[in-house]
């Protein structure tokens, strides 16, 4: 006769088995959900006066790469991919700003430099196929901060379906929000403020090239912002020439980032969508692995409890079946963990292949060849130094001319 207290253990085993089978079912796929809403881009409806239109420079972004191996695995952050994103994300933002029609020239540059009317800097905090989180700061030439905040977008697979073939970025809503916030910040400025930004930008550019002449013309207010003070400008011609040359150099750099963007768009889009799929698989596999291991352990415990409490052979058989089922569940959970490792490695390989696809580019600048990859920052600094030398030479020439004129004897006036 089977003892009555063996029945609960058998029921426990049966219950564990039912829960185990339920744990094998996959959770809902976010890719089947409706697409998350996209904030529309606010387009310009009127043309601003030329002296109120501001140019924007978007500097290459900084990146955050977690140092903990566990965090790197969980968040799927790869150094080689982040380095590429530091160029790709600013250019996507540049495209959005230019498309809005609210601004003059929008250009991507390697580093923030003096002379920008409105300078955007940023940092990538988190980025994979499911989430993009960045920090953006916008500051004009006077030192006025337009915005300094974090932007985050969490999407589902429907965004990828809608983006495929449409040329749209799955995270376009995030870029639209930044662009719209900048338009809102500009609306708070008077027309005179916008004109002053342009004047101060030109003066800051000149002060970097010839500080001995122009720094004294920058006046700092109590709130830390800068204003321009009028004064005779003996180097106006040299500064204008340097500014035109610098604009051409910035156009070359921007074209480099444009070429980089086009080369990266397809492999990066594929990587990001694959990363999204892998993230979903990773979450599901981990859920299944943890569920199977936990329920397997419960089934083993229930089986052992039943084996101890059961007198009859039927009770022993039921308990042994529970133990075997629990061992299988734990083993299945371990196999799922191994599959998780395989998915993580496949993402690493995707990142490495993306880096191989992004070959460095070389451009010719006059009589020099400039390597526009990681050295673009160095090259641009060198370019500014070249401009400073050019202005300094013209300043020396002007000073010598003035000195010679002062030293020359006055000619007698004709009688």
Task: Describe, in plain words, how this protein is organized in 3D.
- The longest helix is centred in the middle third of the chain and has 74 residues.
- 33% of the residues are buried.
- The protein is an alpha/beta fold and 415 residues long.
- It is elongated, with a radius of gyration of 32 Å.
- The strands form 3 sheets. Strands 1, 2, 3, 4, 5 and 6 form a 6-stranded mixed sheet that branches. A two-stranded antiparallel ribbon has the order 7-8. A two-stranded antiparallel sheet has the order 9-10.
- It has a domain of 219 residues.
- The protein contains 10 helices and 10 strands.
- Count of DSSP strands: 10
> Secondary-structure element sequence?
HEEHHEEEEHHHHEEHHEEH
Strand percentage lies at: 5-15%
Q: Give helix % range.
A: 55-70%
Q: Can you give me a brief rundown of this structure?
A:
With 415 residues, the protein is of the alpha/beta class. It has a domain of 219 residues.
Question: How are the elements arranged and paired?
Answer:
Layout (H helix, E strand, L loop, with lengths): L5 H18 L32 E4 L2 E2 L5 H7 L3 H22 L5 E4 L8 E10 L3 E10 L4 E10 L2 H7 L8 H16 L3 H19 L1 H4 L3 E3 L5 E3 L7 H74 L3 H45 L4 E4 L2 E4 L4 H32 L8
Parallel strand pairs: 1-3, 1-4, 2-4
Antiparallel strand pairs: 4-5, 5-6, 7-8, 9-10
Helix pairs in contact: 1-8, 1-9, 3-5, 3-8, 8-9, 8-10
């Amino acid at each position: 006769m089977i003892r009555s207290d063996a029945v609960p253990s058998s029921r426990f085993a049966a219950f564990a088995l039912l829960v185990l089978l339920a744990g094998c079912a996959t959770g809902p796929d976010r890719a089947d959900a409706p697409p998350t809403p996209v904030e529309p881009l606010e387009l310009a409806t009127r043309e601003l006066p030329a002296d109120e239109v501001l140019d924007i420079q978007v500097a290459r972004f900084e990146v955050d790469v977690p140092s903990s191996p566990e965090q790197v695995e969980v968040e799927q952050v790869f150094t080689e991919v982040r380095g590429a994103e530091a160029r790709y994300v600013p250019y996507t933002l540049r495209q959005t700003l230019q498309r809005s029609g609210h601004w003059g020239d929008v250009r991507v540059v390697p580093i923030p430099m003096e002379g920008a009317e409105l300078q955007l800097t940023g940092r990538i905090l988190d980025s994979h196929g499911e989430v993009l989180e960045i920090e953006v700061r916008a500051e004009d030439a006077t030192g006025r901060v337009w915005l300094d905040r974090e932007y985050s977008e969490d999407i589902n697979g429907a965004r990828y379906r809608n983006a495929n073939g449409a040329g749209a970025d799955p995270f376009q809503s995030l870029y639209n929000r930044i662009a719209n916030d900048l338009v809102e910040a500009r609306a708070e400025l008077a027309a005179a403020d916008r004109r002053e930004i342009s004047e101060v930008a030109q003066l800051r550019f000149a002060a970097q090239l010839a500080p001995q002449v122009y720094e004294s013309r920058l006046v700092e207010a109590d709130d830390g912002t800068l204003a321009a003070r009028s004064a005779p400008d003996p180097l106006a011609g040299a500064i204008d020439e340097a500014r035109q040359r610098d604009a051409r150099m910035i156009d070359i750099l921007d074209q480099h980032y444009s070429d980089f963007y086009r080369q990266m768009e397809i492999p990066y889009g594929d990587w990001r969508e694959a990363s999204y799929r892998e993230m979903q698989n990773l979450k599901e596999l981990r859920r299944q692995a943890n569920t199977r291991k936990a329920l397997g352990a419960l089934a083993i415990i229930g089986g052992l409890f039943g084996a101890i409490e059961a007198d009859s052979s039927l009770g022993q058989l039921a308990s042994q079946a529970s133990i075997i089922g629990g061992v299988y569940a734990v083993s299945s959970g371990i196999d799922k963990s191994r599959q998780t490792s395989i998915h993580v490695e496949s993402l690493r390989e995707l990142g490495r292949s993306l880096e191989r696809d992004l070959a460095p580019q070389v451009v010719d600048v006059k009589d020099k060849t400039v390597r526009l990859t990681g050295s673009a920052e160095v090259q641009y600094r060198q370019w500014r130094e070249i401009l400073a030398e050019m202005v300094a030479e013209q300043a020396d020439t002007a000073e010598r001319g003035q000195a010679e004129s002062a030293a020359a004897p006055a000619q007698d006036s004709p009688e």
